[in-house]
Design a protein that fits this description.
Blueprint lengths: L2 E5 L4 H12 L3 E6 L17 E4 L5 H6 L6 E4 L6 H6 L1 H22 L3 E7 L22 H20 L2 E7 L2 E2 L12 H10 L5 E3 L5 E2 L2 E2 H11 L9 E4 L5 E2 H12 L6 E3 L14 H7 L7 H15 L1 H4 L3
Parallel strand pairs: 1-2, 1-4, 2-3, 4-5, 5-6, 6-11, 7-10, 8-13
Antiparallel strand pairs: 9-12
Length: 318
């Protein structure tokens, strides 16, 4: 039974990792400053978790949480392109300086491996059938730049300090507990909350931009595989499904699942948005033994079901 540290463990993806680790009878320590995460995401597992209120920009505090840790799942970040465009300094401070602090603390504590949550946004608007890891990154938002910088720090620490690191490039993760209360939230949570509340959501642009929407359980599985895959260290690896859907196709699917005839409002494109994003996941299959098990439609149905179970208390805050 190993001790795992999940940074940002009260967030959407972090809390899913926590629940799966506990299901596997692992020891779990969580650090979170609750800037974007919520304590409610850990309510049902609170007794099984060593939860510490820590800001990753505080190196001393991060170091205090590291003793005994074998694996770090570094999920803490400001996960928003629009927010980074409005406030690049905060994105840099948390996503870059915070990541450096995590790596320093992990190095000094003798951690076996750090698995870093990167992003498909590092590819930018490359015109390719699928984004693969051999492509040169071309970030077009401060958020993407911050995630690429984190990858570079991971690779440098592996080379210079011999601490194993793996960067996983997430593609448009969605699922239960994704917060719909912020305009910076993921598009799926915003669409579902609007449809269940009888409101018209906004699609920015013409809706023909496409994404490789990836259900959160697939990402959790990839993260845990990345902790132990022998040849994964120092690599950046796509985590997705290898498929793509436009926002218009997404919205039509949600209308059908929810049973709504509400139509969206179309607004102007947002700065920093990417028009096309689809992953090549051959490296994840080869190096991690990863295979997505929850498809697009099933993931949407599970997510809508969860939001319905939460009732209006969650939806009215959206």
């Amino acid at each position: 039974m190993a001790l795992y540290l999940v940074t940002g463990g009260a967030g959407f993806i972090g809390s899913a990792l926590v629940r799966e680790l506990l299901r596997r009878s692992e020891q779990v320590r969580v650090v979170d400053n609750f800037f974007t995460g919520h304590r409610r995401n850990l309510d049902e597992v609170r007794d099984g978790v060593d939860l510490r209120e820590v800001d990753i920009t505080d190196l001393a505090a991060v170091r205090s949480a590291m003793p005994g840790v074998e694996y770090v799942l570094h999920q803490a970040a400001v996960p928003s392109v629009p927010r980074s465009v409005e406030d690049p300094l905060t994105s840099n401070r948390i996503n870059v300086e915070g990541t450096l602090n995590v790596l320093l603390a992990a190095r000094d504590a003798g951690v076996k491996r750090v698995v870093y949550a990167s992003s498909s946004s590092v590819y930018g608007g490359r015109a390719a059938e699928r984004n693969d890891e051999e492509m040169a990154p071309a970030p077009i938002s401060p958020y993407a730049v911050s995630k690429l910088a984190g990858e570079a720090y991971c690779q440098a620490f592996s080379q210079v300090y011999q601490i194993e690191t793996v960067a996983l490039r997430y593609f448009n993760v969605f699922g239960p507990r994704q917060d719909p209360s912020s305009p910076y939230s993921g598009v799926i949570s915003l669409f579902i909350a609007a449809l269940l509340s009888g409101k018209r959501p906004t699609i920015f642009g013409d809706g023909e931009q496409c994404r490789d929407f990836t259900y959160v359980d697939n990402v959790v599985e990839a993260c845990l595989l990345a902790c132990h895959a022998p040849s994964a260290s120092s690599k950046a690896i796509n985590v997705a499904t290898g498929n793509r859907y436009t926002l218009n196709e997404l919205f039509a699917a949600l209308q059908e699942i929810v049973g709504s005839e509400i139509e969206p409002v179309y607004g102007p494109p947002r700065p920093g948005d990417i028009l096309r994003s689809q992953a090549d996941i051959r490296l994840a299959r080869k190096v991690l033994g990863y295979e997505p098990t929850i498809g697009f439609r099933e993931g949407l149905e599970r997510t809508v079901r969860w939001y319905r179970e939460q009732g209006q208390s969650l939806l009215t805050s959206a």
